[in-house]
TrEMBL record:
Positions that bind GTP: D13, H14, G15, K16, T17, T18, N126, K127, V128, D129
Domain Tr-type G, residue spans: 1-196
Molecular-function annotations in GO: GTP binding; GTPase activity; guanosine tetraphosphate binding; ribosome binding; rRNA binding; tRNA binding
Subcellular location: Cytoplasm
Organism: Roseivivax halotolerans
A Pfam short name: BipA_C
Name the record gives this protein: Large ribosomal subunit assembly factor BipA
Gene: bipA
Function: A 50S ribosomal subunit assembly protein with GTPase activity, required for 50S subunit assembly at low temperatures, may also play a role in translation. Binds GTP and analogs. Binds the 70S ribosome between the 30S and 50S subunits, in a similar position as ribosome-bound EF-G; it contacts a number of ribosomal proteins, both rRNAs and the A-site tRNA.
Assigned protein family: Belongs to the TRAFAC class translation factor GTPase superfamily. Classic translation factor GTPase family. BipA subfamily.
UniProt key word rRNA-binding: yes
Quaternary structure and interacting proteins, as annotated: Monomer.
Annotated GO biological process: ribosomal large subunit assembly
Length: 605
């Protein structure tokens, strides 16, 4: 059977996973009466809730005697470590672009990686049946994007199609028959080359491990593409590190390949196949699994360095241990080390005290997904404010710069530009109309300046703005950037909050908690309307007497509290504050719970 390995690249919410659903259905991967969930490739709970792809996953379809392995890549740059490894397994890419929005920052990030590997793209203009679609403009922008990324002549001479993933059709012409996806299947088979490795079946077995997972019955499982040779179940192979050091020798207990959405056992893996192997105990991502006679490892793709670091610590608040079962630093350490082993874009380091860990990664979203997964597993944590990682470059101290693309209503563009270029030390790169009363703004902004900006941005644009960001490069340090200006309201008592007390405190600022919420001394319960922190008593009830008087029985009507998501809470806090994360609650608190220590630290700052 002929073989094709192809990856699908798209920006967040451009319809990538929906298109893969239709490819699976029309290829016959499902029975006619089989119940299949929408966005079947998004198997992770967080992926379904947030509507984004976090983990790179592969599937396999058959079309007219050709097996097509399709890899679904994450659309967000924070998960770029997944992308860089996965692209080394494929021979072509399908770039899916929203016909209304055109290529966006995450598209640019992943596409640059694909072009650098010499992969020839196929451009699919999706959602052309939407009323605001402009497929011709989007196609021109794709060509300009490829040219700016240094594509060669073969890559610039790309085929394109018009499609609607939700309706399940793709055609070469905009006014085509709009029946099915057979034209896209044919284009993939004709345009994407067969794996070069197929010609190397007579050589020794080699495979580069690209993803790591675990199974309660099989143990460690490594996935990758067979670069040369053949492998049968029961064969003895070895694992080599990137530098050629022998890690272990093991017997392959099982070989599995993707068939539709499920794994299927196979007896033999051949060159060009994407397979998973079981039987190893130490081998991990970026290692070479090979025959015993092989001495040189395969080249692994370099991974972009992390740009931010977040400190994970034990939860030492008065409410610790009430929600979660995993609260010890030893258990947290084991979980983080396991994450660092499977996700090579994350680096873990212990602090000298041993009860906190510095986790370095690509961005706030990646950190937020890791923390969310841990709290669902029963962990309790305290999280410090993210810190940007600096480096010593040719020009001295350098900091990471992000390219920010913003689509905003014309009325709010002035406020956005003022915040980005003034307060947050950014540089305006481009500003152009985006149609229907909107403006597209592209700016290069220090990563430090974007921590905590999302909430402010939504306020400035009345919730109508859309902001996307991607790592751009390094630049000389741009000086101090002001953080949050407003102070916070700090509880001075422990207990359950009282509606009457919160009602009286509303004139002091906005609240983060409602009535009957558990609070403790040092916990942040709201944002002060001024710049200083203020200690307040949310437990102070109404004094009761037997004397009735006018004005004493006013109805208590509370403004609904501001409930922050995990990412919003992490971005909101200052350096002297922490986010307390448990399976059932997200709380903010001062780093120092003792009132005398808090006052001493506030005076020192």
């Amino acid at each position: 059977m002929d073989l094709r390995n192809v990856a699908i690249i798209a920006h967040v919410d451009h319809g990538k996973t929906t298109l893969v659903d239709e490819l699976l259905k029309q290829s016959g991967a499902f029975r006619e009466n089989q119940q299949v969930a929408e966005r079947a490739m998004d198997s992770n709970d967080l992926e379904r809730e947030r509507g984004i792809t976090i983990l790179a996953k592969a599937t396999s379809v058959e079309w007219k005697s050709t097996r097509i392995n399709i890899v679904d890549t994450p659309g967000h740059a924070d998960f770029g470590g997944e992308v860089e490894r996965i692209l080394s397994m494929v021979d072509g890419v399908v770039l899916l672009v929203d016909a209304a929005e055109g290529p966006m920052p995450q598209t640019k990030f992943v596409t640059s990686k694909a072009l650098a590997l010499g992969l020839r793209p196929i451009v699919v203009l999706n959602k052309v049946d939407k009323p605001d679609a402009e497929p011709d403009r989007a196609l021109d922008e794709c060509f300009d994007l490829f040219a700016n990324l240094g594509a060669d002549e073969d890559q610039l001479d790309f085929p394109h199609m018009y499609a609607s993933g939700r309706s399940g059709w793709a055609d070469h012409e905009l006014d085509g028959p709009r029946k099915d996806l057979s034209a896209l299947f044919k284009l993939i088979v004709d345009h994407v080359p067969a794996p070069k490795q197929v010609k190397r079946e007579d050589e020794d077995f080699r495979m580069l491990a690209t993803t790591l997972s675990s199974d309660p019955f099989l143990g460690r499982i490594l996935t990758g593409r067979v670069e040369s040779g053949k492998l049968k179940v029961g064969a003895t192979v070895q694992a080599l590190s990137r530098i050629g050091q022998k890690i272990e020798q093991f017997r392959v207990s099982r070989i599995q390949a993707f068939r539709g959405l499920a794994y299927q056992d196979i007896e033999e893996a051949r060159a060009g196949d994407i397979v998973t192997l079981a039987g190893m105990q130490k081998a991990t991502v970026a290692d070479t699994i090979c025959a015993l006679a092989v001495e040189e490892p395969l080249d692994a793709q370099p991974i972009d360095p992390p740009t931010i670091t977040v400190t994970f610590g034990i939860n030492d608040s008065p409410l610790a241990g009430r929600d979660g079962k995993k609260v010890q630093s030893r258990v947290i350490r084991d979980r983080l080390m396991k994450e660092g082993e499977s996700n090579i874009a994350i680096k873990i380091a212990e602090t000298p005290s041993g009860d906190a860990f510095e986790v370095s990664g690509r961005g706030e979203l990646q950190m937020g997904v890791l923390i969310e997964n841990m709290r669902r597993e029963g962990f309790e944590l305290s999280i410090a404010r993210p810190q940007v990682i600096m480096r010593d470059g040719e020009t001295g101290r350098e900091e990471p710069i992000e390219e920010v693309t913003i689509d905003v209503d014309d009325d709010y563009s002035g406020a956005v530009i003022e915040k980005l270029t003034g307060v947050r030390k950014g540089e305006l790169v481009e500003m152009k109309p985006a149609g229907t009363g909107k403006t597209r703004i592209i700016a290069h902004v220090p990563a430090r300046g974007l921590i905590g900006y999302q909430g402010e941005f939504l306020t400035d644009t009345r919730g109508t703005g859309v902001m996307n960001r991607v790592f751009h490069g390094w630049a000389p340090y741009k000086g101090k950037i002001e953080g949050r200006r407003a102070g916070v309201l700090i509880s001075m008592e422990s207990g359950e909050s009282v509606a009457f007390a919160l009602w009286n405190l509303e004139e002091r600022g906005r609240m983060f908690i409602g009535p009957q919420a558990k609070v403790y001394e040092g916990m942040i319960i709201g944002e002060h309307s001024r710049e200083n922190d203020l200690e307040v008593n949310p437990l102070k009830g109404k004094k009761l007497t037997n004397v009735r008087a006018s004005g004493t029985d006013d109805a208590v009507r509370l403004t609904p509290p501001t409930i922050m998501s995990l990412e919003e809470a992490i971005a909101y806090i200052n350096d002297d504050e922490l986010v307390e994360v448990t399976p059932n609650a997200i709380r903010l608190r001062k780093r120092y719970l003792d009132p005398h220590e808090r006052k001493r630290m506030s005076k020192a700052s």
